[in-house]
Amino acid sequence: MSEKRTEIDQLGEFGLIEHLTKNVKLQHKSTLKGIGDDAAVLAINENEVQLVSTDTMIEGVHFNLMYTPLKHLGYKLVATNVSDICAMNGTAEQITVSIAVSNRFPIEALEELYDGIKAACSVYKVDLIGGDTTSSLSGLMLSVTVLGRAKKEDVTYRNGAKEHDLVVVSGDLGGAYMGLQVLEREKEVFNANPNIQPDLDGHDYIMERQLKPEARVDVIQFLKELDVVPTSMIDISDGLASELMHICSQGKVGCRVYDEKIPIDGKTSMTAIDFNLDPITCALNGGEDYELLFTVKQADFDKIKGNPHMTVIGHITDASEGLYYVDKNGSMVELQAQGWNHFDKD
Ligand code: ADP
Ligand code: MG
Fold first, then answer.
1. Alpha-carbon 112 to chain mean position
2. What structural domains and CATH numbers belong to the chain?
3. Atom of ligand 1 nearest to the CA of 238
4. Radius of gyration of the chain from Cα atoms?
5. Distance in angstroms (rounded) separating the CA atoms of residues 134 and 66
6. Residues in a beta bridge with 236
7. 197 C-alpha to center of ligand 2: Å?
8. Which of 125, 128, 249, 274 has CA 20 to 30 A from 53's CA?
9. pLDDT band at residue 12 under the 50/70/90 scheme
10. Ligand 1 center to 55 CA (angstroms)
11. Which residue's C-alpha comes closest to atom 10 of ligand 1?
12. Are 177 and 240 in contact (CB under 8 A)?
């Protein structure tokens, strides 16, 4: 290591990954895709590929145990990993789970965590096949590696979007972020006065979006049934704007998405307005919805049209046209992505 010291926040999360991995050379023909997508893609036989992805969750960064039930946390840990396999248009089959835990946690707490992990394994039909257990000086760290499978011709990468393709999202957006806002607010109220009961009434939907998200295995199944292979796909973990930037930068294209088309549940909008936030901003920049963002050829429009789980929000343009969303007044606003600056000090 040289004397030079450069702060991580100069690069941001994605810049850092790029910086650390830019000289990595693939040495095996079986590595069809290494770094840079929702999962790596490995050759296993003539017709199928293996998919592999890892995600880590750290206490105090990704979850706060003051308001996160351990059972939900275990479920979410598996769901978010399965979501990365969905984003490749594949099926998750196995996971390994690694935990680092301080002696602050009794065995009963870890049993609860595993109840959630096992519940998700049963819902998503994945086998828990191993992992690692170690001690931690502070807090709880959880890491899952998920293995999946897809037919070769079905695999969808982040980089396949072409001009004129339609931009589609599953489900609705912004709910997980608003759920987090409510939980954080009630945490502050509780810290100020522990006698006040948390007021979570009417917030079930957004709370569930935050605490117990689902991987959209159903959407992958619908796409199969409709005989649609998206031209590109990513899961929405960091907010729509950030994921659109990945799709466009990797595909070397631009996009136009329309404010009024972005699907936002009424409960999400109402809560956003209560918090003096613009619901669209929450959908664009709030993370953790774990919906799918994908592009399809225009010719496939008839197949997905009217499907209640999928909404066309815009289209892909030439790169020279940039990345914009069109607001209700018809003004073009350039997309900015907060997810690109995870290490920002503020
Ligand atoms: P996702 O949000 O879908 O989990 P990430 O943004 O975490 O994806 O990662 C983007 C890509 O960078 C993935 O291919 C991932 O495997 C890779 N990656 C992330 N961190 C590292 C690292 N420390 N070393 C090597 N590759 C990494
Ligand atoms: Mg992903």
1. 24
2. 25-154 (3.30.1330.10), 166-334 (3.90.650.10)
3. 2
4. 20
5. 23
6. 291
7. 36
8. 249
9. confident
10. 8
11. 36
12. no
Q: Is the pLDDT of residue 1 over 80?
A: no
Beta partners for residue 149, in sequence order: 50, 91
Amino acid letter, 61: V
CA distances 308 to 226, 243, 301, Å, are 14, 22, 14
The CA 20 to ligand 2 mean position distance, Å, reads 19
Pairing of strands 127-135, 91-101: parallel
CA distance 270 to 210: 16
Query: Which atom of ligand 1 sits closest to the CA of residue 235?
Result: 3
According to the model, what pLDDT value does residue 140 have?
Answer: 97
The number of helix segments (H) and strand segments (E) in the chain equals 10, 13
pLDDT given at position 194: 85
Residue the block writes with tokens 């760290």: 141
211 near 68, Cβ under 8 Å? yes
DSSP assignment of 43-58 equals: E-SSSEEEEEEEEEEE
How many whole angstroms from its chain centre is CA 64? Answer: 18
Query: What local confidence, expressed as pLDDT, does residue 14 receive?
Result: 86
Nearest alpha carbon, ligand 1 atom 22: 17
* Residue-wise pLDDT tens digits, 177-219: 999 999 999 999 888 888 887 777 889 999 999 999 999 999 9
Ligand 1, atom 6, lies closest to the CA of: 14
